[in-house]
Specification:
34% helix, alpha+beta, 13 strands, nine-stranded mixed sheet, single chain, Glutamine Phosphoribosylpyrophosphate, subunit 1, domain 1, 8 helices
């Protein structure tokens, strides 16, 4: 039995400028992070599984309109919301993921259904939505996903004809969670609305096991947020696990090499949250800031935005 239950969550990374953050807005972000973290931690405290904990935490972030996932998902080039999500368990290394789905209230819940009930790992677009309906997932009309801030970002991006990384100040909007439960099992989950004004069914690293999401009881659980193309190319989450497994590095050492060296060399900006099998937490990022929070049985308790 692991006594050091731990959870860490993120709500995106990037150029999060103090100058464009009002005290009211900062308080809202911190509230959203705290609520999601505590919801996940409560699952762990009562002896629940790490898979349940990360699903609950990520669903809470999806329901919170300030984060680019679920309800707060950004608009794509044609004014729709295309969402991606992944969940993975460290004991069996089973994973489930969806990409390019619309209308699904909580993509992370659909990803879990894929893992447990489909016999597959990754379902996309309309097929994933059909599967979701068959599984009784909750769907919502477009209006549910509409937020004024996202609409304005999209209009601005359309005018400038560019793909925006969530907002003009380059924030990589993704949400995610990692956890260790009392049974010593690790799990990770990630969910995102992708890039503002994205075209051609673009998919980033979030729903790809090993790139944006990974869990392995022998090493760690990871959920990434950043420039998805670079995180995909660097297979970030799996690389950290490999550095721990093959080179015997600690979680922090492995994270530092990947986030502050390997990613930087190819121009990859962003960060991640991670927890190892001892309950140690790492939350590295190479951008201006990252919305993040963590809590563990050893008394660790933090809600942070800047460095």
């Amino acid at each position: 039995m692991a006594t050091n239950i731990s959870i860490a969550i993120h709500g995106g990374a990037g150029t999060i400028l103090r100058s464009s953050m009002t005290p009211e807005l900062q308080a809202q972000y911190e509230l959203g992070l705290r609520q999601a973290r505590d919801a996940g931690y409560a699952v762990l405290e009562r002896g629940g599984s790490s898979v349940d904990a990360v699903e609950v935490a990520v669903a809470a972030l999806e329901d919170f309109p300030l984060f680019n996932a679920g309800r707060g998902a950004v608009f794509n080039n044609v004014g729709k919301h295309e969402m991606d999500a992944c969940i993975m368990r460290g004991d069996t290394r089973e994973a489930g993921a969806v990409c390019g789905v619309a209308g699904v209230k909580n993509p992370v819940k659909l990803a879990r259904a894929v893992m447990e009930r489909s016999g597959h790992v990754l379902l996309s677009g309309q097929g994933a939505e059909e599967f979701g309906r068959a599984q009784g997932m909750e769907f919502a009309e477009d209006a549910y996903f509409y937020t004024q801030q996202r609409y304005e970002q999209w209009q601005q991006a359309l005018k400038e004809d560019r793909v925006q990384l969530d907002h003009s100040d380059k924030k990589f909007g993704t949400v995610g969670a990692v956890a260790l439960d009392t049974f010593g099992n690790l799990a990770a989950a990630t969910s995102t609305g992708g890039m503002t004004n994205k075209k051609f069914g673009r998919v980033g690293d979030s729903p790809v096991p090993g790139a944006g999401t990974y869990a392995n009881n022998a090493t760690c659980a990871i959920s990434c947020t950043g420039h998805g193309e670079l995180f995909l190319r660097a297979v970030v989450a799996h690389d950290i696990s490999c550095l721990m497994e093959y080179r015997g590095l600690s979680l922090q050492e492995a994270c530092d090499i990947v986030v502050h060296d390997k990613l930087v060399k190819i121009g990859g900006e962003g960060g991640l949250v991670a927890v190892d099998r001892m309950g140690q937490i790492a939350m590295p990022f190479n951008s201006e800031g990252m919305y993040r929070a963590c809590r563990s049985a050893d008394g660790t308790d933090a809600v942070l935005i800047y460095k």
